[in-house]
Amino acid sequence: MKHTLNILVNNHAGVMSHVSGLFTRRGYNIDSIAVGVTENPEFSNITIVVKGDDSVVAQVKKQLLKLPDVMSVVDLQYNESITRELVLIVVKAQDTNRIEIISICNVFHAKIVDMTEDTVMVEFSGNPRQVSVIVNMLKKFGIMEMSRTGQIALSCQSAIYNKN
Question: Which residues fall within 8 angstroms of residue 105, CB to CB, at 6 or more apart?
């Protein structure tokens, strides 16, 4: 089962390395990791997606909370959180299929951010399932290049950050 961990940490050099190192030392594979500063520049938010059963994730949470720079760890439930990721895709485009590519982008509310005679660059943000669907829809045209970010997530309810 996949778990999305939202980890609030002090914002300074080396913190992400300590957090990701904890997973490495224990042999847990990280499916996705994204880090960014919060509304308060003293803190960063690390979002990690990891596979494991509830007992493994509970153990990881306890170990994370022992790190001095970790303020809180929240295991975000799918139905109580919003998850997003960003993808940039360069697709082969010819006169014969350019309209179809643009139509797919319109359906997904994706942006066309660059276009040449032979390519279209698409920007799309959505939940991981939506990102996978648009990638699969554009594959038939020929994806020349793609970059996909890690997932970010927040609780739909007000999250209370504490070390409990």
Answer: 111, 112, 120, 122, 124
Residue 157 phi/psi, 5-degree rounding, is -85, 165
Please state the domain count of the chain.
2
Q: Which helix (H) or strand (E) holds 94?
A: none
In a domain, 48, yes or no: yes
pLDDT in tens, 112-155: 999 999 999 999 999 999 999 999 999 999 999 999 999 999 98
On the CB side of 68, CA atoms within 13 Å amount to 2
Instruction: Determine the structural domain holding residue 119 and report its residue range.
Output: 83-148
94-120 tens-digit pLDDT? 999 999 999 999 999 999 999 999 999
Q: Is residue 157 part of a domain?
A: no
On whether the pTM is more than 0.90, the answer is no
β-bridge mates for residue 75, sequence order: 5
Residue 118 in tokens: 């032979």
